[in-house]
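Researcher: Please translate sequence to structure tokens.
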Amino acid sequence: MRTAFDHVGLSVADLEAAEAFYTTAFGYARQLAFELAPHPIRGVMLTHPDGFRLELFEHSASVPGPQAATPIEAHATRGYNHFALRSSDLDGLWERALEAGARAVMPPADSPEPGVRFAFLADPEGNLVELVG
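Model: Translation complete:
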């Protein structure tokens, strides 16, 4: 049996703002907008040209959950930690994300994995995103 990674789902407070950030910062495009009636949930499925998909949900009664300020803090909490995006231009993607509204968490540096660089940022709602190059 073969399996493949399909998408990441992320609950957000402001669907339009989150969609604007991920399309501007990382080049995603809307594949599908939907509502999960009768529940007060709206969503969008975003697709990256490389095939990676990100599903954003907005629930009218959602409340903030635990969010780590740094990767080290995230590792000390079970559950959602971060998702990672790979780029051949890590520094360019870092700058583009910051210009789109991301918060710098850990600037580009050498990764523990030999020959790999990485960085961490937080999207405008505080969710951690790792950049790998």
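Researcher: Any highlights?
Model: The chain has a mean pLDDT of 94.
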